[in-house]
Amino acid sequence: MVNHIDLSSVLKRSVCALYSNLVTRPTGAAVRTEIELQLGQLGPKALTIIDFSHVGALDFSCADEIVAKLLLSSIANPERQDVYFVFRGMTDSHLDAIETVLERHGLALVYDRGVDGVRLFGDIDPAGREAWQAVFNCGGGPADEIAAAVGIPCEEAHALLEDLRHRRLLMRTEEGYVAVRPVS
Amino acid sequence: MTTLIDVPPSLDDKSFEQVLDQLAPLPPDEKIIVDARRTRWASPYGLTALLTLAQSRADRPGFYPTEIENTGSYWARANFYKHAEEVYEFHGKAHRTPPHRESDVLLEITPIVQSGDVHNVVERIQKKAQEILTGKLNLDSSSTMRFTMALSEACQNIIEHAGCGGWVAVQTYRWQQRLNGRKVVVIAVCDAGVGFRQSLESSPARRLRDRWNDAIALEEAVLNGVSRFPDVGRGQGFAGIRRFVGHWDGKLSVRSGTARIVASVPDWDSDETAREEGLPLFPGAQLQITIPERIA
Q: What are the φ/ψ torsions at residue B224 (nearest 5 degrees)?
C-alpha cells in the first residue's frame, strides 16, 4: 500500500492552519504524532511518501522530531519492519537541516528528486551506497546477483544488503532485495 | 538610595558592557534608574539587553528615555517603549510610533515565551527577510530559509534553556565602524534566565570536570553541541546557526553569566576576541548574529 503525506497539510491540521513553517520541537513532535497515527492505520506493510513540497522553513529541531525520530521509531519497532519511506519535495535549506540530523543519528533515507532521479541521502558509506544503487538499477535481485554487479564477495554483499534492509532502504522479497523507491 | 546608570551614546553588544560595569558593584535590590537621555543609537542587542536588564533587577528600575527625536522615534517603531513600559518605571515621555513610516526594522522587539511565539516570528519575518537579504545584502535566495532557520533555533534556545521569557529583534543597518559602511542584518536574542552554565548543570548526564565556569559552559553548548537533554538529537541548533553564519561570512557571539564567546571571528572584525572571561555578571544568555552585505 502506498500512502502520501503532505507535511504542510499535516502541520495545518495538527498544529495551526495559519502556519507554513516546520519550526520548533513541539511542532515537530505534533506532526510526527499525526504521521504515526496514519501509519498505525496502514497495517504492517506500507510505503509512505513524505512530501515537503509546500513546507516553508524547516529547522533542526523539527527535522530531528519528524525525520530522524520517524526513521528511528520504524527501525526500532519490529511490527514496522515492512514500513518504508520515500522523502520528496525538499529544498536545499530543508536538506541542510535533514542532513545534519541524519548524520547525528547515523541514518539515511530514500530521496526522490523528481526528474533528477532517486538517491540515498544522509549517513551512508560508499559501499552501502553502491550496493543500494546496484539494486535500484537492476530492479532487484538476490544477494549473489548484486554481489556480481558490484564486484564484491557474496558474503560481503549479503551483510551490506541486510544492513540496508535493516535501515529501511531496501525491501526483502522472495526474489531477493528490492530498492525502496517511489511508486507512480 | 537610587543609582543612575548611564547608557552610552551608542549602545551595542560591546558598549553594553559599560552599563554592566556600572551595575556590577550594586546589590540586585538596589534601586536604579537607567539613563538613556543621551543615547543616539542602539542596536537590536542594545535594546533587547536593556529590557533584559530590567527583568534581572529585584526592584523595577526607572528609565529616562532618549531625548533625541529620531532615536526615540526609531525605538518606538522597534516596539522598545511598548515593552519597556512593562518592565521599567518611566521618567519622562516616550515617543509614540508614527503611522505608516518605512522602517529598516526587520522584526520589532518581540517577546519569546512559548513555541507559538517562535512560529509567529518566523511567519512574520519571511517576506521581509527575503527582500532585505536578497535585495539589500546581495545574498542568494536560499539564504532566506536558512536565515529563518537560524532565527528559529536562536529563539528556541530561550524556551528550552532560559526558564523564563526573553526577547528577539532583527534589524538591518549600515555598519560604519566596521565593514566600511556595508549593510548588515543583525539578530539579537536576549533573556535573563538561568544561563548556559546552570542549564548544563541541570543535566544528570553532565560530565564532571576539573574546571567549570561560564566560558566552558558556553563552549560546550555553542561549539560542541552539548545540551542538558539526554536525547542524542539535542544540541544541533547552534551547529546549524554556526554553519549559516560561517557560510555568509557572519559572526555569532554569545554572552552568558561572566563570559562571552565568538563562534568564529570573521576577518572583517579582527579586533574581536574569541573568548572573554571575568566580565561583569549578567544573568541569562545574550546572543547576536551578524550577517554582512555580500560584495562582489
A: -105, 0
